[in-house]
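Recap from last week: sequence in, structure out.
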Amino acid sequence: MGEGWSASEFGEQIAKHAEHSAHGGAESAQREWLSILEAVLLSVVAIVAAYTVYASAKWNTHASVSLAQASAARTKANRAGFQAFTTKNFDGSTFNAWFTAYIARDKQGMRIAARRFSPAFRVAFNAWWATHPETNPRSPQGPTYMPQYHPAGTTEANLLDRAASRSFAAGVAAGETADKYVRTTVLLASVLFLVGISTHFPVRRARYGLVTVAALLLVASLLQLVQLQRPPG
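Predicted structure tokens:
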């Protein structure tokens, strides 16, 4: 027989070629599926990261507005408190004038001083006088010590002070929520990094390892995300 392959050798070569082609086709299919998985991960991460950035910005804005409202309410509370302090000083001076006239048995001076009482102080004065301070040793020291005494600005100052505290607490909570969204965004950025560098590894096992770690980080990010409060409207 001349040079060349025999029928059996030719058959063996065909079988080897077919086996190599099948193995190469399997590897090509695996690479395609891996590329698809990487593309899916990148798409999901891009969408979720956009949402976390948006939510973080919304919560930061909400925190800034709440803290500004707290500052404004605190300023108004201080102004109302100063008004109450001024009124209390005025009421104290009028009571001192009345008491001086009372000690001197100056009824006209008592009437003049009483006409200067503020409405809130007059209510407290009448309640205090009803306790018979002349003969009752347990009587309060003066009208300003009576529970009925509420100088102008006191109630407003208390309400504004509580509103300022609520706004401040809301601002702090909103800032903390924004920070949590930022942490989630950092995890998603790590996923992008791992998937991005996995395409540069020729070794398939290395790519699988990087994609697996990226997928786990993505799952952790999504678990954190579902536990966070939705951004304000």
